[in-house]
Amino acid sequence: MQSKLKILFLAPHLSTGGMPAFLLKRIENIIKQEELELFVVEYTNFSDEYVVQKNKIKELIKPENFFTLGEDKYSLMEIIKSNNIDIVHSDEILEGFGQVVPDSLLNDLYSNSRTWKIVETCHNVWFNPNTSKRFNPDGYAFCTPWHKMSTFSQMPSYGEVIEHPIENKVPTLEEKSQAKEILGLDPNKKHIINVGLWTSGKNQKEGVELAKQLEQSNPEIQFHFIGNQAINFAEYWSPIMSDIPSNVSVWGERHDTDLFMRAADVFMFNSTWECNPLVVREAISHGLKIISRNLPQYMDMFTPYITQINDDIVTTKNKLLSLLDSESTYEVIDGSSEFENQHIQFYKNVKNLPITSQTKFIPKPEIIQYFVNNPFLEIKGESNSKFKVEFYDESGRCHYSEELSSNHWIRLNREYFTKWNTKIWESGKLIYDNTLDLKGKKVFITLESSSLGDTLAWVPYIREFKDKHKCHLVVSTFMNNLFRDTYPDIEFVEPGTGVSGLYAMYKLGWFYKDGEFNLSRNPNDFRIMPLQKTASDILGLEYKETRALLKFPNGKREKKVGIGIHSTAQAKYWNNPTGWQEVVDYLKLKGYDVVLYSRENDGYMGNNHPVGIRKFESDGTIESVINDMATCEFFVGLGSGLSWLSWAIGLPTVLISGFSQEYSETTTDTYRVINKSVCHGCFNSHRLDSGDWNWCPIYKNTERQFECTKEITSQMVIEKINEVINV
Questions:
Q1: Tens of pLDDT, residues 584-606
Q2: Angle formed by the axes of helices 641-648 and 452-469, nearest 10°
Q3: Is pLDDT above 80 for 157?
Q4: Angle between helical axes of 18-30 and 278-285 (0-180°, round to 10)
């Protein structure tokens, strides 16, 4: 009688997740093969909770064939030898086990004198065999084509792709109705399910935010989250759980996930970091409509089944609503028998292979590249080669060329966006050719100015940047509350907040060096162009005058005019001593209620308020100013933040300024008042000294000080007002 082929499965743990689920499926499919005897070793018992899969595995194999290693990990060798194991199948790469595997154990396990063959399966996308693999197995059982074609393509061992099977579990209408009844789900509502461990990679936060978008408008849609909330990830899920909308149910880990699959109308998968998500395959098995990202490592294997989403939550909401209304279906072909046959043939092939000799393997160099402020590149590895590194811009011009050794790095001094193409040669062979692509990457943009005007000028380009590059965008401003509602697909953080996992970072501001603009941080001289163009230049975008999106009441405007007389330097003020009073008198004559928006009191720095105005009593927030200003008919102000605010909310804006050139601020719906017959535009030719209130770079302490605005008459302003009111 032919002896049985003895296979020992070695797992890091059997607590929860995709790896234990895949192992369970392997065993379920091959346990009935009489020619096989199966053993399972759990390297570490993480927890006695969340062990649904472990218990099922124990039920399938003989109790005496299941082991959990204690403190003495070396006992694994005794289990292998005493049971005459033919194949050790490690269901994770041993060098990346998530726990330390002693070198002494690895040396014996992979010994050239061993009698057993070794098979490995990787279940993640972060392990890099080119830099971290020290021992070669006899074979790889790849769970996804991505590993064979990309991650492990340079490895010398035999390998086959054996994917988790798609089974035909499509329920009948009666079975679907029964499942809803068992779970207590309202049959008159639509049910969206999400399955997975609560982690940032699984991204349940996005799903909850999507539910919030639909809570009021679509109460017939209900969201259900199934999955373990492990205590070690509480930092992620705890804040989410503190603000759960009424249309969300959180079920925890369940042993009846199939029941939810039968009951659901749509499977939602928000994950941003995956290798081979089994739950997607389960959803396909149940014939569910699926909304999910199409991550690069999927290699389009799920494309026929999914509605693709990205980081734009509004677009996702619309796609979900369309999916719920559609009658789309797809054919589900059962692959269970193929899955079983692939395993049997694979293990037979491995059994007949010679023992892989463990010789010194020098892996490919690891190239680390990111663009946080400055482009950074590091080459890590054991190679003795010299590497030629070159950086090219969009025009094909080489900006940097250098020779680099292993375990050295370089950082370029350019900080603004450039679509860099990076090339690396080793021994004359091109080994790396990468053009900057931010799609799906985490990018951080910070506004270095706390000024209201700068903020309103630059924020629109942040949205343009996200739309162009399809990136996960994190933004820091000093006025985040103004934008969270109107830019829901952007993550806003407070200034000074550390942001991890960044691929790129850009800073918006005016940066000087040696008295001139800093060529490494600003691509063009910001003094001689519109303020908004600062942002478009740094972010590599086309310049077009664009309003920031703000939340404000869109009601009927009153017979009311807003004015802003204060600023941050005397040079910015309208220094005509009678100007404001004469303009206010004219507006009152026309029947307007004149409202002054100001934090400053009357007499601030010697600047008195005109008589006859009403000062708006703010609650201290800029939002209250916006809400009141939105009811004005138009606004009269200076080249300052309030004029930018008025323009952003769509008010006709009379802008009084000789301090800056006409191109500096806005042009559309803007009625500019400037006197070009006197000295003007110093802001665009000199660097403002913010510490000198009376800064006037040419005529300070002379009769001509501040003549740029002294010589703007009230009549000039009134003429522009008449254009606004059609007089």
A1: 999 999 999 999 999 999 999 99
A2: 50
A3: yes
A4: 50
Written as one string, the DSSP assignment of 116-172 is SEEEE----SS--HHHH--S--SEEEESSHHIIIIITTT--SEEEE-PPPP---PPP
- Residue 4's Cβ-count burial label (10 Å; 0-12, 13-18, 19+) is middle
669 catalytic, yes or no?
A: no
Domain count, the chain: 5
* E runs forming strands in 254-406: 266-269, 289-292, 306-308, 366-372, 376-380, 386-392, 398-405
* Alpha carbon distance 409, 420 (integer Å): 17
Q: Torsions phi, psi of 69, nearest 5?
A: -70, 140
Residue 361 in this model has a pLDDT that exceeds 60: no
pLDDT at 96: 83
State the DSSP code for 610: P
CATH number of domain containing 290: 3.40.50.2000
Do 23 and 149 lie in one domain? The reply is yes
Counting Cβ atoms within 10 Å, is residue 105 exposed (0-12), middle (13-18) or buried (19+)? middle
Q: Are residues 585 and 534 in the same domain?
A: no
Q: What angle do CA 298, 300, 301 make, to 5 degrees?
A: 75
- 153 and 184 in one domain? no
48: confidence class by pLDDT, cuts 50, 70, 90: confident
DSSP string, 480-497: GGGTTTT-TTSEEE-TT-
Fill in the amino acid letter for 226. I
Answer yes or no: are the C-beta atoms of 421 and 389 closer than 8 Å: no
Cα dist. 552→115, 244, 483 in Å?
75, 26, 11
The owner of tokens 């096989």 is 36
In 52-131, DSSP assigns E strands to: 66-68, 87-90, 117-120
Confidence of residue 275 (pLDDT cuts 50, 70, 90): confident
Token pair 């491995």 in the structure block, residue: 350
Indicate which residue of 138, 454, 489, 537 is catalytic.
Answer: 454
Give residue 221's domain range: 173-325
Asked if residue 243 belongs to a domain, the reply is yes
Encoded tokens for 364: 């490919």
**Is-contact 373 379, C-beta < 8 A?**
no
How far apart (Å, rounded) are the C-alpha atoms in residues 407 and 260?
Answer: 50
